[in-house]
Design a protein that fits this description.
five-stranded parallel beta sheet, oxidoreductase activity, FAD/NAD(P)-binding domain, 291 residues, single chain, 2 domains, alpha/beta, 7 helices, three-stranded antiparallel beta sheet, FAD/NAD-bd_sf
Length: 291
């Protein structure tokens, strides 16, 4: 949406295509605590304000899932499930999707005890015992949010220390109903119609492996993200993890194609860097169009 704002304010005709909800993953963030100038707004509030901003401009919007993209006769053609779109420049800002544990039963238990969004589903587990899988900032934020609703929150991480922001690690450590289980992996998901317990294995880094069953009513998975760049493989080079190779200019190998936000190669994937990418990509797209 930042790219759309900058493109429109530069006098260009802009179409923004969104697969699900305008705002992306930020909608599910309980609070934004590290965006300069904003004091802990809710993620959905921030996204709504941003959407109102693009609605005040002459930005065209479409809801569609992109399947492929190509370049021919000085036009980029983007094919979606619903329609086909064309333009003289293309900004790819598709973000990432949740990484899964890859365990048997994960798909069938999703929505039946397994979730990837605490703010979306946390209220269903009020006064119950839940677990969060992950050790980064997102997992820590999920655990802190759930601690306000749930009786007990097990925070399970396969490493022997958390990798999230130090401020979040400190808050987790001082929250009485969060139980940190480090050097621990989830081995099995159990239940009939719903998830009712998980099998965990602990102590392998320390050389003291042990297995036990943890009875919980909900499991929130926050073990990272994976890119969704496959439709653009012909237009942009990608690294071994599938991220589009692009620098601070957001330019890709194809003139007129730019990659912004979490979908590109970068050291820090945060809201503030995604917004900066949107501005940079739009500014460079405008320069390309005006050559």
């Amino acid at each position: 949406m930042t790219a759309a704002i900058y493109g429109c304010r530069s006098g260009k005709k802009v179409l923004i295509i969104e697969r699900s909800v305008f705002g992306g993953q930020i909608i599910s963030t309980p609070e934004i605590e590290n965006y300069p100038g904003l004091i802990s707004p809710k993620g959905h509030t921030f996204a709504a304000d941003l959407f109102r901003q693009i609605e005040s401009l002459d930005v065209e919007k479409a809801s569609d899932e992109i399947l492929s993209a190509a370049y021919e006769d000085e036009l980029f053609t983007v094919c979606g499930k619903i329609s086909v779109y064309t333009g003289r420049s293309l900004i790819i800002a598709v973000g990432t999707k949740n990484r899964k544990l890859g365990l048997p039963g994960e798909e069938s238990f999703t929505g039946r005890g397994i979730s990837y969004c605490a703010t979306c589903d946390g209220a269903f587990y009020k006064a119950r015992d839940v677990a969060v899988a992950g050790g980064g900032s997102t997992a820590l934020e999920e655990a802190l949010y759930l601690s306000l609703l749930c009786r007990k929150v097990y925070l399970i991480h396969r490493r022997n220390s958390f990798s999230g922001e130090a401020a979040l690690v400190k808050r987790v450590g001082s929250t009485s109903n969060i139980v940190a289980l480090l050097d621990t992996e989830i081995r099995d998901l159990r239940g009939k119609d719903r998830l009712d317990s998980i099998e965990i294995s602990s102590g392998h880094i320390a050389g003291e492996g042990s297995i036990r069953i943890l009875r919980i009513q909900g499991l929130f998975i926050a073990i990272g993200q994976i890119p969704q760049n496959t439709p653009f493989a012909h237009l942009a080079d990608m690294d071994s993890c599938g991220y589009i190779i692009a620098g601070e200019s957001c330019m890709t190998k194809t003139p007129g194609v730019f990659a912004a936000g979490d979908c590109r190669t970068k050291e820090l994937r945060q809201l503030v860097t995604a917004a900066a990418d949107g501005a940079s990509a739009a500014a460079n797209a405008v320069k390309f169009l005006e050559k």
